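TL;DR need structure tokens for one chain.
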Amino acid sequence: MLKIVGTPIGNIEDISIRGIKELFSAKIVIAEDTRNFIKLRNLLAARFKEIINSLGLDEKTYPRLISYREKNHLKVIESLIALLKDGDAILVSDAGLPGISDPGQRLIAKAIEEEIPIDVIPGAVAYTVALVISGFNILNSVFLGFLPKEEGKIIKLLKKHKNETIVIYESPFRIFKLLTIIGKFNPNLNVCCCNDLTKKFQKVHRGNVLSVLNRLEKSTPKGEWCVVISSVKD
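>> reply
TL;DR here they are.
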């Protein structure tokens, strides 16, 4: 069986009790970055030692770690499928729920194709948090992950989904360019740009796209951003 485990997106307390139980009982962990997983596990062990012990688990017993990311998919996929047919393993991403804008989606699809049982232990997801905190129309929304780099392709997607609330991810290096392109497409659109969600100093910038761009240009954006774009109708 492949167990997909949601991990914190910012605040360490985003983790669920089920998540803690799986992370500290798993014998095999498939991780996007094994170093990040070790850091997370150590933080959880320090913060939630009493909970871990109350579950009858030992925070000092480490699982076998297997690195799985986009670049090594073809190299390791067959061995991972063979492993999953023989026993259980959990899948974690660097943050959030695996399968959402990360390579875990390909492993999950392959496991289903091979009739390997799948289970999901839910956790926080950045784009759903951003969508709710934006205050925009949730019932008619679409998540597009990371957009193409080309301006023409971005404009094409904005036109295609102009009557929907759009949620996307963006890097700190491209956030200014993205907002500039949105402004060219329709300067009257409202956006909600979120950073460090669920952390103590989370940032949420709402308003007209050009006013938000002007606000952000006065700072140095760091970390991944989640951008919610209102529909043309709103």
